[in-house]
Amino acid sequence: MEPYRNKNMTTEKRTADLLSRMTLEEKVGQMMQLPANSDNNMDKLESMNIGSYLHCTGDMMRVLQTRAEQTRLGIPRIFGIDAIHGHCIDNRATVFPTQLGVSCSWNRDLIQKMGAVTAREVRANGIHWTFSPVLCVARDSRWGRVDETFGEDPWFIGEMANEMIEGYQGKEGYNNWEKIMACGKHYAGYGEAAGGRDAYEAEISRRTMLSLFLPPFEKIVKNGCASLMAGYQAISGEPCSASSWLLRENAKEEWGLDGFIVTDWDNIGSLYTKQKVASDLKEAACLAILAGNDMIMTTPSFYEHAIALVKEGRIEESLIDDSVTRILRAKFRLGLFDEYRHTPSDLEATVLGRADHWEVSAQASRESLVLLKNDNLLPINSQKVKSIALVGSNADDVLAQLGDWSFGSMQAGASDDSFHRDQTVTLLAGLRDRAGRDGITVHFVKGADPLDDAFDQIGEAVRSAASADLTIACVGDTLKLHGEFHDRANLDLTGRQQDLLEAVKATGTPLCVVLMTSKPLSVPWIEETADAIFCAFNPGAKGGTALAEALFGDVNPSGKLTISFPRHVGQQPVHYNRYSGWHSMNDRAMAGQERYIDMPEEALFVFGEGMSYTSFSYSNLTLSSSRLTRGLDLLVSIDLRNRGDRDGTEIIQLYINDLYSSVTTPVKEIRGFERVFVKAGETVCVSMTLPFEELSLVNAHLERVVEPGEFEILVGSSSRDGDLLKAVVTVE
Ligand code: BGC
Fold first, then answer.
1. Confidence check: pLDDT of 395 > 80
2. 265 lines ligand 1 (CB under 6 A)
């Protein structure tokens, strides 16, 4: 038996042995990835030695893997899929809220479980790798892909991503039927494209890259993330896939990535056709190899050009060897050369959509909801409320509830919008069921449609609201208003949704608004006028049940926003970790307040904000020391009291503010949080550790350092100054 087939040898030895047996053509083939579901690409498995396929469904994985086994060296193929909030691309699988939705739970354990469920279902399906998690920083809601992110804060994103990756990959590795490889994307700065224009140029300095956009990726690479995907866009003129600074110097050399880097869709073709930093496809292939891309997604011409470049002596074969080693290593680690090559055909039937998986999804739906306002309206009091008028088309829109990448999504290439219909409980269904149990009637009128300016059932909605004890209006966006190729210039409610809200409010019936949306919208009227507001970022298949439970108080809401809402699109970007020093009209007269002449500086709803049916108070902020030196961590403690008469969960947040430093720093930055359950009337003391390194900044010489001086330590219930207690620690 050849050494590479010997399971008892180390992965390194097996990889080296296999590599030594491969022709140049076979090696370059390993770097190729094509979509299985188009252009007769399955036929290219043998002729181009294709090493990986994406977008495989149905029987494709089994067919391709069997054919791969019959090739000269029998190298297995890796299949990748966008299972980004559950394995949504299979109709039998479990769907979760989107990343943005579930991020509002701030629940590490839940996010890890979501990853674990997804991994089990993906692997049972014969797929080995998900293009997730997304580590993009969402600071401009105009961008179509805000829903795919963990929100606006890089530190928080890194924390959540590590949990999800641990769920996907496991601690013990992925050579089993439970685990898959993760792919951190889009590396890097992709969410920062100017004007929210997807894949457009991002103007980001090296210092800002090092301060903000690289740290979450560094965190996951150092924690063993198996792969990264390069972003589409250029950063200050250099496309991500052409940047050896990004791919080689940082990810591979500095952080020690031993996994591989895949391009995004035809990134290498785009170097020539769109970004024009290469004068033809061959030059593009050359740039791609030099920069450090290992796997080339969907640029078929790379195959012949890479081979020619090596033969002509323009590219060292050792560069190809490095990429192929990384890819083969992953295949060995997945157990694909051994007993995990062919997925048992009966596995998916027992694993996909298991009851315990749906239970995790339901928990995610519950914890993703954020109560943003409540003027004594909620929870619904069944003694007083006998009839509910439910208005707004999102109350009964499966795609608004599930969000992108859940079939019916452009990238999934699906024309079939019927996926996950049966498993989905819309707000209408969930509310009817829950209200019915208390003998409350629910009358539904669509009223308005976010996709149709002409759709107008406002008269009927008003009649319904006028005769009801409570109006619940479910408004927001739906699938066609976000996603790739779907950026927006205007963040107001679309269609006649705003008119609908104003009309039902005018009836005098109390109004609860459920914002079912993929991203923050500019909804100041709602903030000012509604009596209660729930934010439900694509709350998943069980979102309707979760919302009904929350509205009736069966579950006490605990979610908090991980992204700020602008008052108006012109206020973007409006993230909490802003800088000070804005010369604005009122800064002297109004005690340092910074604002536009026509609008406050502060977001409509801020990062970290979210209410409960009980209330909490914070006291006794204590630091383990008032002075700190390298090597010492700071212990921060706080007393948290549940002042209400209901048990509840609070998300305590810890921010830092470097008071004086050699470069400007944000007014505050989150560096810790705890999710704490407190019984009614009780007080708990919560301690959080702040590692010394968390006080670091990147100085003007691009070095990461902790500078001496005073730091404010802020602890409380949101990023708003008024919600935070303060103490000072001095770094010596
Ligand atoms: C997206 C990626 C995705 C890839 C494969 C691209 O258009 O930007 O996020 O993983 O397609 O579907």
1. yes
2. yes
One-character DSSP codes across 42-98: GGHHHHS---EEES--TTHHHHHHHHHHTSSS-PPPEEEE--SSBSTTSTTS-B---
Distance (Å, rounded) from C-alpha 615 to C-alpha 592? 30
The alpha carbon of 265 and the centre of ligand 1 are apart by a number of angstroms equal to: 6
For a mutational test of ligand 1's pocket, the pick from 57, 81, 198, 264, i.e. the residue with the most ligand atoms closer than 8 A to its C-beta, is: 264
Where would I find the beta strands (DSSP E) of 246-326? 260-262, 296-297
Given a cut of 90, is residue 24 above it in pLDDT? yes
Instruction: Give the orientation angle of helix 281-291 with respect to helix 317-333, to 10 degrees.
Output: 70
Give dist(CA 53, CA 78) in Å, integer. 7
Report the C-alpha gap between 382 and 682 in whole angstroms. 28
Does residue 484's CB lie within 6 angstroms of at least one atom of ligand 1? yes
Is residue 327 helix, strand or coil? Answer: helix
CA distance 541 to 412: 18
Q: Tell me the C-alpha distance between 465 and 505, whole Å.
A: 8
Residue 380 CA to chain centroid, in angstroms?
Answer: 32
Q: What is the Cα–Cα distance from 444 to 487, expressed in whole angstroms?
A: 31
CB distance 35 to ligand 1 below 6 Å:
no
| Substitution site in 265, 295, 298 for ligand 1 pocket (most atoms within 8 Å of beta carbon) | 265
Distance (Å, rounded) from C-alpha 296 to C-alpha 269?
10
Q: How far is the CA of 253 from the centre of ligand 1 (A)?
A: 26
What is residue 405's DSSP assignment?
S
Strands (E), 248-353: 260-262, 296-297
Cα gap 85→88, rounded to integer Å: 7
Using alpha carbons, select from 101, 94, 80, 100 the residue that is nearest to residue 37. 80
Q: How far is the CA of 484 from the centre of ligand 1 (A)?
A: 9
Ligand 1 atom nearest to CA at 186: 9
Query: What are 354-373's pLDDT values in tens digits?
Result: 999 999 999 999 999 999 99
Distance 550 CA to ligand 1 centre (A): 34
Of ligand 1's atoms, which has the minimum distance to the CA of residue 232?
8
Q: Quote the CA–CA distance of 396 and 534 in Å, as a whole number.
A: 16
Q: Closest Cα partner for 130 from 334, 363, 298?
A: 334
Please give the Cα distance from 391 to 462 (Å, whole number). Answer: 9
Within 510-653, where are the H helices? Answer: 524-529, 543-552
Condensed to tens digits (0 to 9), the pLDDT of residues 249-307 reads 999 999 999 999 999 999 999 999 999 999 999 999 999 999 999 999 999 999 999 99
Q: What is the pLDDT of residues 134-165, one digit of tens each?
A: 999 999 999 999 999 999 999 999 999 999 99
Ligand 1 pocket check for 373: Cβ under 6 Å: no
